[in-house]
């Protein structure tokens, strides 16, 4: 299932070393003017090859619009984006197909697709498929911005170095704006040195390191989402878990709820200048699966890049024997900085879907 | 959206104080004999009124089968289950509709449903809707058991008291079996006294307390699930987040991945008696969204019951003024023990859906 | 797949001789007041046992609302309706399970459900399942009426007796109103005698007869529906073909288009009192899958009731030998009059789905 | 909704005068080797510019595979096909956007997409979007052929010239094979002269003419499909009605059922050489929405090409005044011959979806 959505649909296609990756976005409202420069900036945030912290693979991630955009606005019919694969070193992958990489989908893809998958560079499981997600999210962000909604994220943790958290009841717009364009977004810039050191240390040791991202969306009106399977948490968790390497998704106070009392966890309602708000925001802007008008807050854990330079123990699934592997290709010692725009993008896309199913859109 | 599923569909209906709650299960394989006593035992695990730790509301949760079961087996056509509401004290809820309960869906339901929702006892948002989920899960467990798959869970944490975690590479069947029938399932029974004390302390103070549940499914073959939106994590997270009060869902090592190195996080492959396994199981049995044959592991955070006896600050949304509220009705000081069978149920249901879409079912 | 819908979902359940049949309607707008007497009238139009023309099985088709209706209006959460089975003569069906009835789903259900289906009275394939469809349609009609949309149908043909057709560019509201409450709706009442004679003749001969129904929906604004798979024709055809015994569905001039010239078939646009209309309406109110503001017109062919009193050639699928069958039970010699309210109902339901996805609803 | 399918998904994109049209096919079984020459032949059957009977627009309909095919077989991940638009004369369409073409989707697209649609050459509503449908169907045909299923169609009618019908209980494989490669497929070749004369007559008069296509699929096992919304008729009708210009879809004896008796319409079962068959096949191989093992038969009515050279009455929707229009561009006087491969293709695609959801695939 490479199609997702209730009120708008995204369909992904492509493999890392095939002709192209891309997506079909079906259900965009007609008449939306897209700021393509802003889309390119989002794509550039995800693109590899930016610094010593990321993979050496360099791709412009130049995209072409196949359909759905005409005379300066969306048509309302499917918008297909195509992102050509250019800097592929497929020969890197020759000769080790049968040695399955630990932490990767090599073995599971082999079973799931009966040995027929394109294994080069992870194929359809590659992080490269997040490029069309970022594209989609960039458009979603623009539509949501038209509704006064702003999305941002920062690196909450890399290794054991932590940034502070968002103020749950809301951040200044300037804070979110600054984060939106940062290559290494932090609430406290002074953590950057330690985090970068942590990453470079891992790199030097032929290793990688994981992290956590905190995301916030401000300006969402109350009433989006549904109880049960269509809860805001269900929709967004589906999308976050669609991103390779994500292994944890929590909302509001998340895991901390386990040790809380109800009297703490219940966010007290009050009116401020005629507007209904909560004094705290442990619930992360969601009650009963539906937005309550407070900032939406979530945290996403990203595991360490499974591609590491070290020799690892594994098996040869053809010979059915033990062997070792040293993963070829060019890899990020820490995927977290590049994951930030991807996670923002899927958050934006999920919110766009919820928006299009809400009374806010009906009355818009 | 009260219908969910890719290869089998569940549709929920009902309100806490309406005529009945129930579900339609569509897509069950024909010819499955259901052990109804086992279903009743699962229902009883969730049912209220069992001890001082749970709500005083007592309901047998007796269910009737409306369709889809004939001559001792499933027919393959929709199985509808109806669970009548009996012990409703609707008058408890009179006169305070406009005072919205903190931590509940009162306000969000009001906006979402334009003031038309059945507000009594949480209406369609009530935990009572988890009864049909447990029913569905009980049937799913039986079908999965026929494939050698066993599901169990334990209370990982209540307040700041923690149980040990599952051994990631697998537990003895006896351990899982014992947990399956326990009212207060723990790996280490000696934590029970402290946890119960924690709950009763909260109760005495008119308060409630949250917790965390760890779940395991053993015996799942490799190859279930899909990349991206149909990942095992996406499917299961959707279902966990469909359960009221859930605010965190992680897989495998979850949040701990943030501080890990790739060389730790990558589970090394090896053959044991000709069977492919991993030495560790940080990935919780899932690579690239697809099961890898190792035990599936996840943790779910449950927030404290929002219904507490204490006076809380809130607003009257009709008068648009501040006020206080003392939530009426009969409530659990800690929902976690009753959440265990519900979370097991949705896990089982999600796995059933994945099974029916897998080559395992094709070849079965 | 017993669930259908894009913007609103209906889920059917039940078997002819089980405990109950029913449906879950999910996505009804909140705040709709239902005229239950009008719903009962629609149910009565479909109910059996009304005259010598229909089956002797008598069932009140009394329904009970399990959820989704509160304080005199829809809540917006799932509305479940339950219709108890009362007048079942299951013993009629004993002893001939293995002799498959020609024209029925006995054999196909046997294969599809691996021999586990409830075979009594057609089980889940029974025309009785159309009772919840009529219920759903009755509610849909009321919501559509609030938008100025009126649906009606008449018997276009029974055997070789034909009624006239609707005036494609529109009928007087009085005409549609009269048809809506007729037990045997005809544009030309003088065809009734011949049609009834045709049915009774078939009945006397232990046989049955087929027919055709023409349906019209007036008042639909332009702009509902989608190109391709979401075309108005696709949506409505899915629903019509979901009704047992339907074997033909055409729109506008239907089969007659084959012999037409483009210059005839193209409906010329013009303004009448500032309102855009077409001079003819061969396209039945639909261009490119989307409503154009003209009356929606379609014709549905209903095959003769397969249950006939005559001895028929068939096989015993257990013994795998030839045999004969004389179908037991009580049956309609012509299902067409009772099919009319069912077809109106699914038309209404399909239009409700299209409405809820349209800009008309957004701006409503 | 440009995505369709239950067990396999197709997503369409593109506009007639945009960069490209195409489709994403998601859910193809892995390991299928595609005969690309056969795909090209199918594409060529639909392609324009073949004779005096079709439009002068010439496009090779060359396609490129973006993903999902590797080392000579399908991978099981999404197969994206891109068909570049080359011979577009967009200037043909300049200056008459506001004059809506009768019989076309110009006005309905305008309302549905709020005036933002790409209007050139019909945009997303263009018959050009059937190219990716033919592509998808060509692959589906190959997979079905591997299961012994053969699909063919012939022109049943053009204007008032009729071909004979298929023998309902089955045709010789040679008959179907011959039809499959014919540019103008007929059971009785001697009707060709009259049909071509009928088309050329219309062309000379600046007009167009409609027709009907009959389709057959042989070799389908019993047990595919579902009751109600997933009936074979519902699935196939959705797909047929997704094809532009289709206005009628019937199965088996179709409209003729209206004048039939049950004793005629019921297809008597018998065993022939141990295989269950019916003596007649009025039901077109479907009982209760499920295939019964007999040939699947359906007829599809195609309206006359709405683009005609004649001056037609219409309106200027900007000025809101009456005007005339002479449709520019290059058009087919009769779309029926080119519709044949398109209708075969969607039939094949629908059958592939049903196959992948059937026990036949499970046991394959």
TrEMBL record, chains A, B, C, D:
It comes from Megasphaera lornae. GO terms for molecular function: chorismate synthase activity. This is Chorismate synthase. Gene3D superfamilies: Chorismate synthase AroC. PANTHER family: CHORISMATE SYNTHASE. Homotetramer. InterPro entries: Chorismate_synth (IPR000453), Chorismate_synth_AroC_sf (IPR035904), Chorismate_synthase_CS (IPR020541). The keyword Lyase applies. SUPFAM superfamilies: Chorismate synthase, AroC (SSF103263). Its cofactor is FMNH2. Reduced FMN (FMNH(2)). FMN binds at residues 124-126, 288, 303-307, 330. Pathway: Metabolic intermediate biosynthesis; chorismate biosynthesis; chorismate from D-erythrose 4-phosphate and phosphoenolpyruvate: step 7/7. Its EC number is 4.2.3.5. This reaction introduces a second double bond into the aromatic ring system. Belongs to the chorismate synthase family. It catalyses: 5-O-(1-carboxyvinyl)-3-phosphoshikimate = chorismate + phosphate.
